[in-house]
Amino acid sequence: MKNIQIFDTTLRDGSQGAGISFSVEDKIKIAKALDAFGVSYIEGGWPGANPKDEQFFALAKRLRLSSKLVAFSSTRRKGVKAADDSNLRAVIKSGVKTACIFGKSWDMHVKYALKTTSEENLKMISDSVAFLKSKKLEVIFDAEHFFDGYKNNKNYALASVKAASDAGADIVCLCETNGGMLPSDISKITAQTVEAFPKVKFAIHAHNDSGCAVANSISAVEEGCVMVQGTINGIGERCGNANLCSIIPALQIKKDYKCVAPKALSKLTELSRYVDEIANLIPDDTKPYVGRNAFAHKAGIHVSAIEKNSQTYEHIKPESVGNERRIIVSDMSGKSNVVSKAGELALGLKGDGEDVKQVIKIIKEKENAGYQYEDADGSFFLLTKKALESFKPFFSLKSYRVAVEKDETGAIVSEATVKLNIKGKEEHTVAEGDGPVNALDNCLRKALIKYYPQIKNVFLTDFKVRVVDSKANTAARVRVFIESSDASKSWGTIGVNENIIDASWQALSDAVEYKLIKSKK
């Protein structure tokens, strides 16, 4: 098994993505998570470029990371000695033992971006690498725009690699900076470059502007690169960087390369969602390997097949990357979907019973009316219990009323009144809230809590509203989805009605009923 070093640049290149801004504390948290996962290198930022990165490197000295912490910078400026260049001196000051510096390998950039001569650019590369090596640093040289440079002037692109390697660069990274190359381009150029420099260790750094960053990275490894640079979830400038959450399992599971410790791979989904959480990004459910829907099955034929052999519709075992299989119940469901989901929820349905047909019939009717049970396990659970006539309600609604008042100061107050029958007693409660649904939720809890104290730790984590039939305009039915959580798990419930308050009541009451049933076990 050949080792492939994983160079994570989430904290530096990833932070350049639109809408992403890491605080120093965020960067420390992510660095710890990356270290625990076991990447080889963590690129922390560009010391000297901004106060945030300066502070990060100062704090990172105390972390005692097993991964190598890397400071990023550029080659020296034209006409300045490497020892006098402020960027390179900032790298030394940061206290890291590994530096990653970029330099131009495309002569067009040398002419128009740097506005210097081809010869001076090569000296900038060699002088900078040599200076950092004289300070006992490990040096990774990023040959920026290498593949575009190679296509336009092969000899000069290769000359930039030679300048870095002759000066002592430990690794030369071939950068696909514009992200427009296809895998065939990467394979051909990487193979020729590796052949031209058999003693040089190469890395790949790909961007995703053509949607090929993962494929391009894998192609480069197959042609001899021993390091992959990328980010968690592929975050980064424009269309993003190469997604390490796809590259690592592809190389390790499918190609028999070792990127991280085998046990660490099962933490990949957790790492992906942790970084999204810190970056304040909504996780992409369709992401390969780590997405919530990566192993979700909806078609009845598919579910029937995976119940017999998971390889029929799954390319790897979900648990190998820390993910899990999801069986989705919908109007497309067959017997296999319902039985599998019922088994997951411990409902005890058998595949050859009339009960299953009855549940399927109800689901199809409900979904035709606008319900959707893909993420509403709590409501599906209650629907099935009612279909099996094994549901005993914990309370019943007599009436509710919601009022919204706005005074002359612009202040808005929502108030709900609920009358419930609980264990043979009538409870009449009133509560206010930040909005009508929040007031209704508060009122329901207030009525129930003295009878069922276990709902005290239940809280609403998500609330979504969607119009089912927009053609009906303001009389359209709406679908309300609520996600609730307690100390141990989360569950979803759903309600549909032309009245958003009643749809919300359905979802709220289902959420509480589900919790109470589960608490009895």
Automatic annotation (TrEMBL):
It is an enzyme of class 2 (transferase). It catalyses: pyruvate + acetyl-CoA + H2O = (3R)-citramalate + CoA + H(+). Gene3D superfamilies: 1.10.238.260, 3.30.160.270, Aldolase class I. GO terms for molecular function: (R)-citramalate synthase activity; 2-isopropylmalate synthase activity. Residues 4-266 form the Pyruvate carboxyltransferase domain. Keywords: Amino-acid biosynthesis, Branched-chain amino acid biosynthesis, Isoleucine biosynthesis, Transferase. Its EC number is 2.3.3.21. GO terms for biological process: isoleucine biosynthetic process; L-leucine biosynthetic process. Pathway: Amino-acid biosynthesis; L-isoleucine biosynthesis; 2-oxobutanoate from pyruvate: step 1/3. InterPro entries: 2-isopropylmalate_synth_dimer, AIPM/Hcit_synth_CS, Aldolase_TIM, Citramal_synthase, LeuA/HCS_post-cat, LeuA_allosteric_dom_sf, PYR_CT. Pfam families: HCS_D2, HMGL-like, LeuA_dimer. PROSITE patterns: AIPM_HOMOCIT_SYNTH_1 (PS00815), AIPM_HOMOCIT_SYNTH_2 (PS00816), PYR_CT (PS50991). Belongs to the alpha-IPM synthase/homocitrate synthase family. This is Citramalate synthase. It comes from Endomicrobium proavitum.
